[in-house]
UniProtKB/TrEMBL annotation:
Protein's recorded name: Cytochrome C oxidase subunit I
Coiled coil: none
Residues annotated as transmembrane: 30-53
Biased composition annotated in UniProt, kind: Basic and acidic residues: 1-14
Length: 215
């Protein structure tokens, strides 16, 4: 045995060193995998939380999760204030907080627009990830005071039938009664109740922006 080891050493090889090299390579491979998992963790966590885990009883979200997913149809065409038409799906890439209402915008409509503006403002540095959208169901004129109060809210005219088909409402309500949330992938994600508590909406959106890296 000692003579064989001596011959190996003379040839410049040490058989006992080979296992150490294999162990070092394996350790490096696991380190790379660990780094990849850490980098992907925020994305994985956000999707598990809102699309896989189905909270019951102790649910912490205020809004109603929309299941199954309802992506924005490419056929849903809207018209902006300049008269230009575009697919609503072209707004993908940011979180969308959506209100549907008539152009005349009564008190309930104005309240929803106010809530959306304030909720977005409270997100601080994250607010640019969130776009407030008013989908008008007719082409009538918008009251001047509403136009001036919400310059940062994107306003579009859309077909009311197409909106009703896409946006589910609570029993006894219509899509005009709710505020909706669409994720940056263009999927309708959440519906907030009629006469909502804006602080609770803020809580849901703050958590989403914190834990999700998309948008």
């Amino acid at each position: 045995m000692s003579s064989e080891r001596s011959r190996e050493q003379k040839r410049g090889r040490d058989p006992s060193a080979q296992p150490a090299k294999r162990g070092s390579w394996t350790s490096g491979r696991w380190m790379v995998l660990l780094i990849a998992l850490v980098c992907a963790a925020p994305i994985i966590a956000s999707y598990l939380t809102y699309y896989v885990i189905k909270p019951k009883g102790g649910a912490t979200n205020y809004g109603t999760l929309i299941e199954p997913q309802r992506p924005i149809s490419e056929a849903l065409i809207v018209e902006d204030e300049a008269g230009k038409t575009m697919p609503l799906a072209s707004l993908r890439g940011r979180w969308l907080m959506i209100s549907v209402d008539r152009s005349a915008c009564d008190k309930a409509c104005a309240t929803k627009l106010y809530f959306m503006r304030q909720i977005r403002a409270t997100q601080g540095g994250e607010r640019e990830r969130l776009l407030t959208v008013w989908l008008r169901t007719d082409a009538d004129a918008v009251p001047a005071e509403i136009e001036h109060a919400y310059p940062d809210t994107a306003k579009f005219i859309a077909d009311p039938a197409a909106l009703s088909a896409w946006l589910p409402a609570e029993t006894g309500a219509t899509d005009l009664d709710h505020i909706y949330l669409v994720d940056p992938n263009g999927n309708l994600m959440m519906r907030f109740p009629k006469h909502p508590d804006p602080n609770k909406i803020k809580g849901d959106i703050t958590k989403l922006l914190k834990w999700s890296s998309i948008g």
